[in-house]
Amino acid sequence: MENKAAVSFRHITKAFGSKVVANKDVSMDIMSGEILALLGENGSGKTTLMNMLSGIYHQDSGEIFVNGEEAYINSPKDAYALGIGMIHQHFKLVDVFTATENVALGMDKKTTGGAKEIAKAITEICDRYGFDVDPKKKVYNMTVSQKQTLEIVKALYRGANILILDEPTAVLTPQETDKLFAVLRNMKADGKSIIIITHKLNEVLAISDRVAILRKGEYIDSVITSEATVQSLTDMMVGQKVELDIERPEVEDKQLRLTIDHLTCLDKYGVTALDDVSLEAYGGEILGIAGISGSGQKQLLEAVAGLQEAQDGASITYIDPESGAKEELIGKSVTEIKKRGIALSFVPEDRLGMGLVGAMGMSDNMMLRSYEKGHSPFTDRKTPRDLANRVKDELEVVTPGISTPVRKLSGGNVQKVLVGREIASNPTVLMAAYAVRGLDINTSYTIYRLLNEQKKKGVAVIYVGEDLDVLLALCDRIAVLCGGKLNGIVDGRTATKEEVGLMMTNLNTEEKEGE
Amino acid sequence: MTTTKAVTKEASSREKPFHIVKRTDMPKWKSWLIRILSVLASLIVCAIIIVAVTGDNPFAVYGTMVKGAVGSARRVWVLLQEVAMLLCVSLAVTPAFKMRFWNIGAEGQVLMGGLGATAVMLLLGHKLPAPVVLVLVIVVSIICGAVWGVIPAVFKAFWNTNETLFTLMMNYIAIQIVSYFTYVWSSNKGNNVINTINTDNHAGWLNLPQSVDQYGYLLNIIIVAVLTVLMYFYLNRSKQGYEIAVVGESINTARYAGINVKKVIIRTMLISGALCGVAGMLLVSGTDHTITPNTAAGRGFTAIMVSWLAKFNPLFMVLTSLLLVFMERGAIEISTVFGLNTSFSEIIAGIIIFFIIGSEFFINYSIKRTHAKEVESK
Known about the structure:
heterodimer; A: alpha/beta; 6-stranded mixed β-sheet; 34% helix; B: globular
């Protein structure tokens, strides 16, 4: 069993257009009963390779063997029939359906035997591997972690023996990640093959048996995990030696730049998303915001940016670095904030849906926040073009040209364009939400470096993050949100991961009673 | 868990011989070559159908089409006039569509503009000096078109109503209003026809003297040509054009950038409606000098196709509107010369447009043979 290959790729090549080769002559094996981590930078072809295995794309040339036989995978249905299931980053579940209904979706009643049988099978799978799914629960009532579990159960129910997980831990808390890993180990013990795509090297080391590395679409090598270190994996992935420590420069002169007082916001359904939060941000420091996704981070940043209405009694004060004048931000629109010369930059979570216009090139995107300047009814085209060229050179943005739609760029390059523009406006306060989500090591470190440069210039940086290791290494102070409430502020230099993780999930009740 | 092993075996479905791959890098000349080839291919398919169904010589049919469209000086003028009118409505709907505001109501906006022009010409034609009448014609028709366009925009901006249904319904209201006034103002009570207005003093007529412009279409064509260039710069170079593009791409991004989305929606539909009003005015005071409920003649709908085919580029829209009008003029001619049903010429026009739209697929995607190497070696 141990030595049998569950999947073998042989000379797989896949190109998009004539210039972009996503996979080039990739040959590798996935053994049965192993957890293989697939590692590589953005654009190294990991997801493309897995999409070919799960039937979303088809290779240009080369063969795929499943359990020793050549397989023709033309659609996800073919992949399921071969026992291959993929858990995508974006879940493919119907919100208003229950767990059982989602599992049943697209299946023939003759094979499933009806809802009761499915619910029974779900419970069976859960007992076997240690999942926790309530078959009757509606998906919209589930947490992100529960949705992910349901996706895995769905794949298993359909007979998956080979499971592919694309960035499964990106949306999970440390505790939830541990739970997921325990389940994966149980599945492995049951003889299933698991392929996990991730950027997080410490997780690779924690869970996998073997690591396969792709670089620029080519298969580089695979190593036994127990013989690898974070440094050795990074060097193989990047192809050169990389400095791995995140800097945390000390800035002596810290000036108050932003005060948030008793901020309460509702989400679009009228539910309290942010509950009476008070915070201060200083120039020359990076203030981290930790919390499970959906704990009010979005509302906090958008309220400062003038995009989110606040409930009565709240106040957000901006202190101008030159005059020291105080400006109340609540009640001001984005345009008013801009017009009053308040130097606020914002890198939102949704890069292409909010921060940038996907269909426009770099040049046109550079003027998104400044196109109104000047009295001419026509746009100034030269300044943004120059800025686009500068950002392209300084941040090494890979693009065919500054008028190529940014939607066509890779995730890392999209983020460089966005961060580059926001920094270019010389902010006093810089807010960044999930600034390195989905980015590879190299680009992530570029972003950390840029944020640190801003900090050294005296900018108040607010960094909403999800990777606790990064938050603890990068930030001076970390404010922890839990269910919309501020659950305490810790020092980034002394706090531990467990401490912050606990604060993210357990509201400090003492404080609550004290109110 | 009974399903686990059972399904694994029956899996290997057969390999498909082809698969589709998205292209990213086609040079411009090549994409135009594909478009031209698609027109040629469509002509060949049409020829086969012509021979099979009617037995006529396809080359004679095509020759007749060309002759029908551009066979004489008068026909060339009519062709240009029709292109100008269609182009004008297309220019009008383009800002709305670029903003992803589905303005299906151009037909009604054109009619209302035309009705405004008619009202001024009829009611004031003999009361005010001719130049004043002309100015009023222009102003009133623009206002009428703009009002008809801005009503659905206001409802969309403030109450998020569905603009597709709203603008569509506004068409029927406009048609009924025009029908009503053709009855009220009909030249002989009860026949519902307004005869040519102000034939004596030409008050409110927007034409160059006949000595300069024999057919009376030149001024229309010049006005639309100017509008085309203006619209190109408005959409591609102005700040307002930039706002339209951002709102069309993503409302969230627009809000983030500090763009007042409500204002942009209303302003853009004001412009869209006003330009439709201009088209109505050109049809009434520049061409027909009267109005019927059919004055817009479906241009409000054809314009949507013109605009999309040209990917919202006003300069390309000259080509797409020329193509559609050419087909239509040619089709009318072959139906009379060959004694064919008009439906037949519409079939031919439909096939050609189908091929042109279909060619976009081959510009954006390529079809690759799966395992090409193996197939060759066998």
